[in-house]
Amino acid sequence: MKHFEDYSKTIDYLFSQLAVFQREGGSAYKPGLQTSMMLDEAFGHPHRKFKSIHVAGTNGKGSTAHTLAAVLQSAGYKTGLYTSPHLVDFRERIRVDGRMIPADKVVDFVNRYLDMGLDCKPSFFELTMMMAFEYFASEAVDVAVIEVGLGGRLDSTNIITPELCVITNISKDHTQFLGNTLPEIAAEKAGIMKPGIPVVIGEAEGDVKDVFDRVAAKTGARAIYAAEHKPIKKVVEGDGCLVYDTVNYGEIRGELTGICQKLNAATILTAIDLLNESGWQLGSDAVARGFSDVTTLTGLMGRWWKVSDKPLVICDTGHNQGGWELLSRQLSDSRRRKFMVIGFVGDKDVDSILSIMATIPDATMLFTNASIPRAMAASDLAEKAATHGLFGETFDTVGDAYKKALAEAGEDDMIFIGGSTFVVADFLSLKD
Question: Which of 246, 266, 298 is at the close of a domain?
Answer without folding.
Answer: 298
